[in-house]
Design goal:
The chain is an alpha+beta fold and 152 residues long. It has helices at 13-26, 32-39, 41-44, 91-105, 120-128, and strands at 4-7, 51-57, 60-69, 74-82, 110-115, 132-134, 147-151. 33% of the residues lie in helices and 29% in strands. The radius of gyration is 14 Å and the shape is globular.
């Protein structure tokens, strides 16, 4: 099965929300701030120099992940989602690697993420990519986040 990674296109906005809502709703983690990012990636991610990557299986969007700048040197890996029918194929890892490469090319020296302990597979993936657990900052934008990880 060939999977191609592509950068954001306006016609993928629905898929960005659709794929993320699957896991957010499954784990009762959907918050108003999630909906803002999912519905307005052009304004909240791309307009600030970020990028949203999509995994394509033919014409079907089967995964997504965003690179969001926080500062000149700190970026966030966010909104990783893979369609349930395409999990276990390494798509999440490839999306994360694309985000890491994009952020590093843009000058990132630190990449951070927030997650939740219920997302065991995602946290394990982040650990294998070199992310390390750190204390949750006071200014985290997600009320349900209880995991904070950093990669230097």
């Amino acid at each position: 099965m060939d999977i191609e990674l592509v950068e954001y296109r306006p016609e993928f906005r629905f898929d960005f929300e659709r794929l993320n809502r699957i896991w957010l709703e499954q784990h009762a983690l959907l918050e108003p701030v999630d909906l803002e990012y999912l519905r307005e990636p052009e304004r909240l991610i791309l307009a600030h120099g970020g990028q949203v990557f999509f995994a394509m299986q033919g014409e079907a969007v089967v995964g997504t992940c965003a690179a969001i700048p926080i500062s000149a040197t700190t970026w966030e890996l966010a909104k990783l989602a893979v369609d349930p029918s395409a999990r276990g194929l390494g798509i999440g890892r490839r999306l994360c690697e694309a985000v890491l490469a994009y952020a590093r090319a843009a000058g990132a020296t630190e990449i951070v993420l927030t997650s939740h302990t219920a997302l065991v597979e995602a946290i394990h993936l982040y650990e294998t990519l070199g992310f390390r657990h750190a204390p949750l900052p006071a200014d985290v934008r997600y009320l349900t986040a209880n995991v904070y990880m950093q990669l230097s």
